[in-house]
Amino acid sequence: MLKLFRFLKPYWWQVLILLFAVGGEVLGTLQLPALMADIINKGIVAEDTGYIWQTGLLMVGIALVSAACALVSSYFSARVGANLARDIRAELYTKVTYLNMSDVKDYSTASLINRTTNDVNQVQEVTMMMLSVMLLAPMFCIFSLIMAIRTAPDMTWIIAVGIVAILTSVIIIMALVMPKFKIYQKLVDKITLITRENLTGLRVIRAFNNENLEKDKFEKTNNELTKLSIYLDKILKLQGPLINVIFNGLTLLCTYIGITLLNKDFSYLGDMSAFAQYVSFVMMSFLMMSIMFVMIPRANVCAGRINEILKIKPKIQWKAETKGVPDKFASVEFRKVDFRYPGAEEKVLDDISFTAKAGESTAIIGSTGSGKSTLINLVPRFYEATSGQILINNIDIKDYQKDDLMRRIGLVPQRGLLFAGTVKSNIMFGAPSATLDQVKKAAEIAQASKFIEKLPGEYNAHIAQGGTNVSGGQKQRLSIARAICKNPDIFIFDDSFSALDMKTDAMLREALRPIIRDMVVLVVAQRVSTIKNADQIIVLNEGKIVGKGSHMSLLKKCNVYRDIVKSQLSDKEFKKEMEAANA
Q: What is the DSSP letter of 401?
């Protein structure tokens, strides 16, 4: 928790006002029992009505000032707590957004969501209580003790008995609940993970008729969370009855001792009344602090989870500015690049070397698991190569400033991802300053304009989160339009034509041809028909390049490529292709 208090620095003056308001509330409230004792001793016993009215009006004025101070402290504690939560959420979100893919994979999406929402809320609630209760309770306790000792020194041992009893109960309760809070947060993460997984995979679950299986999985975790919640609630609810027993016991003790002393001196009545109120203040202070001592451990667990994310040092570090001047003509070069995922023993890519030049299309093909997508993900530095060099425009990607590198790359991922908004906002995602004409032109090249014009609102048509209200092919075409609108140096198509029919695929490639003359085009594909006209085809097998060249040259000299082609064509078509290659 203490590490997160750095977020309070901008609000120090509000905390200062709150401190003075709490002080005013405490001093005002503590005056009331003393004044009431004076009314009893000097007003009622002495039968002085004027003194009773005078002191009574003073008590009303002090009570009003104390209430105003309480209102001010409540307002500023809520304000500071809300601002603290906002700033923590903002920094958490920014941190997660700028983490590398390899960093994010260390945590589940559900856990990151809970840390940004539930954990921050817990910290906010406790901060608000700390700014009010943790300032108020100690002041009340200390000054009430002083006033109680001054008022009735021979009864102060009663307070000591009450304090020992309350501290004992709090220590026992904390010992029982503290180890369970971490388990509770992990179960909350698991519930969120299962819920998110089921909602995103709903079609697959229904297709395989596995609703009951997923329901059982959810219910198992839900039952564990419920049992733990009941256990924590039972233990925490014990606190109230225990405090009531202690408080009522002390009240009876005060009354008994007070009556005994009254038999000796009736003027002790006012002091006894004031002492009883001071005892109640002390006990209430300890009650408030005990509630905080139970809440703080849970918030401390949440704060630890938040700090765990905030202190992550990304594995991939970027230069403050690009080192060197990139070539005017775009290029991508791999020099003896190896890659293995963190913690893995085997390489996913091994000794990858090739050059992709401007105006040429370089296709990457291979069997499933051969490392195609991994290779593509190294270009925008989603992952860092284990060894070797990757150069873009003749500069090592490690020497680029992040924005400078990313603006050069137009990526169309394997699964077209759209954001909640409009067609226009999705196409403009990589080029916020693009005009409507540029958006329309990008959509036309991506073969998306026809279906867009049929949508209600056309380019202002609503797109649901994840693009769930458009088909897979439409989603892919909008993703391609987004990359085109960015006008990058390098186009990366990661199996981005898989949802397109052959006719649309051919039309899109033809429309792309005029705009890629000065660009590098990297294409990952499964279909040979998609890449057969590429200037250069890289054939991967088990992470190694086993073939490099044109379609025809690879048919002659690369067995892996020949097998891929054969698996996708009929015997007649394959025979025709081989005859053309050998001609």
A: B
